[in-house]
Amino acid sequence: MPERYVESLKLSQAKRYADAAAILEPFYIAGPVGMDWHWNFAMYQLACDEALAGRREKAMNALIASQARGGSVSAKQLATDANLASLHDDPRFTQIVDAARNGERLWAREPGQGLPFAPNLSEEAKIAGLSTVWSEARFNFAFFDRQPDLDWNQTYLDFLPTVRATASTEEYYRVLMRFAALLKDGHTNVYPPEPLRDAFYGGPGLHTQLVENAIVVTAVDDPALLAQRWRVGDALLAIDGEDIRHYAEREIGPYQSSSTPQDLQVRTFDYALLTGRAGSRFHVTVKNAEGKREERVLTRLTLQDQSKLKKNGASFKMRPDGIAVLTIDEFEDSEGAKALLTNLPRVNSSRGLVIDVRANGGGSTPVDLLQMLAREPIRGPMMRTRSYSAADRARGVLPGWTDAAPFEVPADPAHHIDVPVAVLTSARTFSAAEDFVALFNAMHRGITVGEATAGSTGQPLFFQLPGGGSARICTRNDRTPDGTVFEGIGLRPAIPVSNTIESIRRGKDKVLERAAGALLAAK
């Protein structure tokens, strides 16, 4: 988005407001994913362009979108920005300015939302939070059809006594997590308050994965663990004496909001298996590469200490066989597209390009990256959301659906990739990364190699909960441009390949090698 945003700014400065708005409108239709502040600022610019082009209703819609999740600009800027002068007599504009002045999210006040953190919230506050999650899902959740046996109203009643019985805010938020997980959607989650996050998300500096029915160490980030004989390929057998699969099923799985079996597997055995209270120690029974059992101790680090060990982002390299490899671990920014632009001459003189999004947890749909791959304009995903009318409900009419017009991604002939392309996928390919894979498939631009994606995308509605926690509910049902459903299923690769315990221990990436071989054969 940043490059297109700059392009729209140039047109706006040239007073070509309608043309500037046309560039940003596809991003408005697509919506943000997660806390995408680039999107918020772009929507504010779109509101200014639409207002200056004389399209007041479109301007107001864009301004509401920009400010709805906490605001991209201050109340003072809103009130004094001459570009928005034509909106000043609209009552909604006054509401937007007031919300910004009071530090509130637009029309998002929930029961108990303003209650500060306390070690143990009142019973009334706990019930208010449960009620908020229930009601937001009841009216906005996009996938009740995937859970035909779930009686959401009865589930709410069943959880009321459990919520009342919690003895601390920490215990309460664990209950809320289990409640939200029953909706079985990766974009529908409950998050604990800031003071409790280290109690939930503390973890050691290594990564695990379920491979060939064994839980294997796939990376060791903390140098201290290397000194303690931890190695890639170590198999974890037990935690504190309990079989690790039983431990995961009891302590981890029920709290994971996931859309598919492969998504649940990743969340349980990759992301959350070793998490807990920062500073706590636990015993692990390990079988090393030589088959020897060992007893080891791990200590969970704070989130701040974990962040110091992370190496996410985008990287580019050329293999000796002439294959270019672009690895992108997130789409929160445009670093992947920038890396590709920087190395465009090398890519177009290569024997093929591999784009690795196996560990990409999403962000915003990477329009800039797609433009460089496209040979012609690409039709975006099909999107629908629930529609509700109070008057219809009074007449006994059930809520229906509203379909959004698909946006179009134009090709970028000035920065075009001219070589064969392969995209690597896994169950950790999630959200905007799945949108990327779906559109890559739709343009018939190359092959996908690896494992099925997570099967979870869409626009979540964020809201606050008592005590400073938060939650989100997925509000949008997305399908591929041709209407194929992949939510709750995942996108399956053209060439299925998985790494094995042996390949992990030897440092051999079977998925990458299979993709490189296919590209060399195609060239």
Structure description:
- The structure is a single chain.
- The protein is an alpha+beta fold.
- It contains 21 helices and 20 strands.
- Strands 2, 3, 4, 5, 6 and 7 form a six-stranded antiparallel beta sheet that branches. It has a six-stranded mixed beta sheet with strand order 8-9-10-15-16-20, with helices on both faces. Strands 1-18-17 form a three-stranded antiparallel beta sheet.
- Helix 1 packs antiparallel against helix 2, helix 7 runs parallel beside helix 9 and helix 8 runs antiparallel to helix 9.
- It is globular.
- The two termini are 31 Å apart.
- The model has no long low-confidence stretch (mean pLDDT 90).
Percent range of helical residues = 25-40%
Strand content: 15-25%
Class of secondary structure makeup? alpha+beta
Total DSSP E strands:
20
How is the main sheet built? Answer: 6 strands, antiparallel
Radius of gyration: 24 Å
* Distance between the first and last residues' Cα: 31 Å
Any idea what the shape is?
A: globular
Number of helices: 21
Low-pLDDT runs of 5+ residues are: none
Q: What's the rounded overall pLDDT mean?
A: 90
